[in-house]
Write a structure and sequence with these properties.
It contains twelve helices and two strands. It is mostly helical. A two-stranded antiparallel ribbon has the order 1-2. Strand 1 and strand 2 form a beta hairpin. The N terminus and C terminus are likely disordered.
């Protein structure tokens, strides 16, 4: 017997005919996923259907929020990154969805909780500067492994895919709307989000960057992480606007 529990979806059935197994959200998402699978990768129709599917997921507010009581100072950033990875995966691997095995929301939340939140936690926590309290990667994995019914990433999805952080980096470099370069620490145009993000990505230390810009490390760090959350929608839009490569490309 399968159970699908949607947060905030408690409906009274008193005086009503028996409800169908599919919720209204499921009835919207499943046809979009099935229709997208019927169009070739990279086609306009497939892209439009996937954009509609992801927008529906976002607007539904039914995506899981794993470990919401942990990582209090960094949860918003971790969650934003995890969603970016999930949406990238849905766009590139929608053919993996099997409608006979469950609903789209079930599949998406499973991936979000068991894979992408873990990967996003690793990426975000590794970016925290020295001197800021954080969990080690070993501690992080230990916490997830101690959860009920632990599942390894290999069991969930054996093939590797490019980390969405690569797509995030591309969007920061391109800066299609010029927002990343225009957004800077007050009174310090050179300390803009684009410059800071690329410096960190290229391996420069936080302290070295703070010294170069003449800005306290804590101020720089807060600005950087606020920007990552603030620009989540712009980054997501950029990722979705990129051509979706044919899955056969990885084999060539």
């Amino acid at each position: 017997m399968q159970h699908l529990i949607l947060r905030g979806s408690l409906i009274s059935t008193e005086g009503m005919a028996e409800l169908p197994n599919l919720t209204e959200l499921d009835q919207t998402l499943k046809p979009l996923a099935i229709a997208a699978k019927q169009h070739p990768p990279g086609s306009l129709h497939r892209k439009q259907l996937l954009e509609q599917l992801i927008r529906t997921l976002i607007d539904s507010n039914q995506l899981a929020r794993p470990r919401r009581n942990q990582f209090k100072n960094h949860y918003a950033e971790i969650y934003a990154e995890a969603k970016q990875q999930l949406f990238y995966h849905l766009c590139h691997r929608i053919d993996d969805y099997d409608p006979d095995k469950g609903e789209v929301l079930q599949w998406a939340n499973y991936l979000l909780e068991k894979r992408f939140f873990i990967e996003a936690s690793r990426w975000v926590l590794q970016s925290i500067p020295r001197g800021v309290q954080r969990l080690s990667i070993d501690d992080l994995e230990k916490q997830f492994n101690q959860a009920e019914n632990p599942v390894t990433l290999e069991q969930i999805y054996p093939e590797r895919m490019p980390l969405v952080s690569e797509q995030v980096v591309a969007s920061i470099r391109v800066d299609p709307d010029g927002l990343f370069q225009k957004t800077h620490v007050m009174g310090k145009p050179s300390a803009n989000f684009q410059f800071l993000a690329l410096r960190i990505i290229e391996g420069y230390s936080w302290q070295e960057t703070a010294d170069q810009l003449g800005i306290p490390l804590a101020t720089l760090n807060r600005f950087y992480h606020r920007c990552l959350v603030k620009f989540s929608d712009q980054i997501q839009t950029y990722i979705l606007s990129q051509p979706i490569p044919n899955s056969n490309d990885d084999e060539n």
